[in-house]
Amino acid sequence: MGSGRIKRKQREAVLDGLQPVSQADPLCPLCGRPVPPAQQEAHHLVPRSRGGTRTQVLHRICHRQIHALFSETELARGFSTVDDLLAHPDIRRFVDWVRDKPPEFVERTRRSKRRNGH
Fold this sequence. Notes:
With 118 residues, the chain is mainly alpha-helical. The chain has helices spanning 5-16, 60-69, 72-78, 82-87, 89-98, 113-116; strands at residues 40-44, 55-59. The relative contact order is 0.16.
């Protein structure tokens, strides 16, 4: 993933030896858990390759799950809002599973069989 604004700020904080200053960790709009600075990733609601500019801060694991399930075309056409994403049964199943995990929880995300062409 490229050097987005959030990643740049995280890298600068590490170089300064300081944690990023924040009032409180933002809540992930997908799973509802607080997103610690080290787990923050910016998700383009409409992919940049499709002209999107607006971003939403998500947990890294939530962001990766979205991209494991959907192509950029699918995201642009039918899943350009958090509500659209939450309406999909695979995302709903993932959110129900991850919701009970601690905010800093990390696990490898696998691309769906549907996206792999199987």
